[in-house]
Amino acid sequence: GAAPPRRAALPPRLAAAAATAPSAALARAPHMHRAVAPRLFSEPPPDSSPEDVFEELTEELSQLQRILIDMSPRKFRASQLSLTALTGLAAWFLTPGYSKVLASLTVGAAGAGGQKLGRMLAETRRTVVPAAIAQLVQEQGVRELDAADVAALAKRYDVPAERFEEQLQTVYGRYLNALASEPDAPPKASEIGSLAALRKGLSLGWNATSAAHVAEAAAVTGPPSGRLSGPLKKLLWLSEGLFATSRERATTAALRDSL
Questions:
Q1: CA distance 107 to 113
Q2: What is the DSSP letter of 99?
Q3: 3-state DSSP call for residue 42?
Q4: C-alpha Rg value of the chain to the nearest Å
Q5: DSSP helix/strand/coil, 167
């Protein structure tokens, strides 16, 4: 059979125009867009700081604690009295009027219940002290913490001395943990300075300070391996540096024994 006729070759300029026509058409089409590579990663989070632990302490408060932490002692006491009175009044009006004896008993029981609830609120209010101290640190700074302002919190929240010292240790221990939890960062003398300033601002004695270091070591100690972990090495370094300023009133002996 006869061979199919050949197409006539296009002139060079026409051939080039034909080759680029499809891409040019795509570029002009309003509904066609070049694909954009998706962003697989968001912006890196801001660097954390050991001082962030004070913000964490305030964020851990319950809704009730957030209300009680800002309530003045006078206002809180008035609320307690009002609670007892309102409970008694409610019991009086809800009790049938024909039984005065029953009404008296009901009011007495309701008043006792109101007092019990008031004591429960007072106990809850005492638990906000670590967060109240953390608020002071955020306002004044670790190195500028006023010891008198911290001590005034014991009276404001009606906390016994022994329990108040435990709460001071809690705040100190959280900051110590935050410093020791950065074992990969090169140790800095400024960290010991900040730890010493916080101890002074809290008016924390050396015995209580040493106990806080031993407690922190117990919290981070893992299974026996013959080697100290990074956080424990950092904790020991911080302890040795801080206790060196104690004029031998605190040593790392108890801390090393706990390891």
A1: 10
A2: -
A3: coil
A4: 35
A5: helix
CA 143, CA 202: separation in Å to the nearest integer? 11
Q: Can you tell me the distance from the alpha carbon of 150 to that of 153, in angstroms, rounded to the nearest whole number?
A: 6
Q: Which residue has the tokens 């998706």?
A: 38
Q: Locate 223 and state its tokens.
A: 């299974």
Collect contacts of 179-187 with beta carbons under 8 A, ≥24 apart: 179/50, 179/234, 179/238, 180/216, 180/220, 180/231, 180/232, 180/234, 180/235, 180/238, 181/231, 181/234, 182/50, 182/234, 183/229, 183/230, 183/231, 183/233, 183/234, 184/230, 187/234, 187/237, 187/238
**Residue pLDDT, tens place only, 64-96:** 899 999 989 888 888 766 655 445 444 434 455
Q: What angle do CA 39, 44, 45 make, to 5 degrees?
A: 135
Sequence-ordered list of residues with C-beta below 8 angstroms from that of 5, at least 6 positions apart, any chain: none
Q: Cα–Cα distance between 204 and 145 in angstroms, integer? A: 13
Write out pLDDT tens, residues 22-69. Answer: 444 444 444 444 444 444 445 545 567 899 999 999 999 999 899 999
Candidates 49, 80, 65; CA nearest to 178 is: 49
